[in-house]
Specification:
The chain is an alpha/beta fold. The chain has a single domain (5-190), classed as Pyruvate-ferredoxin oxidoreductase, PFOR, domain III (Pyruvate-ferredoxin Oxidoreductase, domain 3, 3-Layer(aba) Sandwich), CATH 3.40.920. The chain is built from eight helices and six strands. Strands 2-3-1-4-5-6 form a six-stranded mixed beta sheet, sandwiched between helices. Strand 4 (70-75), helix 2 (78-84) and strand 5 form a beta-alpha-beta unit. The longest helix is centred in the first third of the chain and has 14 residues, at 17-30. It is globular. This is Indolepyruvate oxidoreductase subunit beta.
Length: 191
């Protein structure tokens, strides 16, 4: 636990980025890591960008991840991955949901959603793209895509020795525990 790891979650309001980062934070704390977390909601209730920064290690002094310092960027939507890619280290990774949520300018017809976002990112950094929304939908609830992505992140970081099932069971509403446990396992398997 000597190195500090930096994980940046990004998405659009309502996708569950904050819940996923809270589950990660709780699991890391329970395992003995020093953890700092910060949230930026922005216009999240209006479909705007949301980001959460989680830093963990033996000793963490600040919750802020600067540009060029994130080990992993977890993006809940393609354009958010492109928007926040500048925060990655040169050898960083992106775990991205191959999902598009059109912004207000796209919806109003003033611009088009860009094509080939994931392919463009793959030219510059290591990108692990999964269709978390489809995986979650196949399990019965597309809203659990956030926990699918959390499972993919845990697999990418190799954080297998934490009781994620227990942490998820304590964190999500009781009616959704089983579905979220399945989503978590599906995300791990997708990696």
């Amino acid at each position: 636990m000597t190195d500090v790891k930096n994980v940046l979650f990004v998405g659009v309001g309502g996708q569950g980025t904050i819940l996923a980062s809270k589950i990660l934070t709780m699991g890391l704390i329970a395992h003995g890591y020093d953890v700092k977390m910060s949230e930026v909601h922005g216009m999240s209730q209006r479909g705007g960008s949301v980001s959460t920064q989680v830093r963990f290690g033996a000793k963490v002094y600040s919750p802020i991840i600067g540009e060029g310092t994130a080990d992993i960027l977890v993006s809940f939507e393609e354009m958010e991955a492109a928007r926040y890619a500048k925060f990655l280290k040169k050898d960083g990774k992106i775990v991205v949901n191959a999902c598009r949520i059109p912004s207000m300018p796209v919806l109003s017809g003033t611009c088009q959603y860009p094509e080939g976002v994931i392919a463009a990112l793959q030219e510059c950094v290591s990108v692990l793209a999964i269709d978390a929304t489809q995986i979650a939908s196949d399990l019965g609830n597309p809203k659990s895509a956030n926990v699918v992505l959390l499972g993919a992140l845990v697999e990418a970081l190799g954080l297998h020795d934490i009781d994620w099932k227990g942490i998820i069971s304590q964190t999500v509403k009781k009616n959704f525990v089983d579905m979220n446990l399945q989503a978590f396992e599906a995300g791990m398997a997708a990696m």
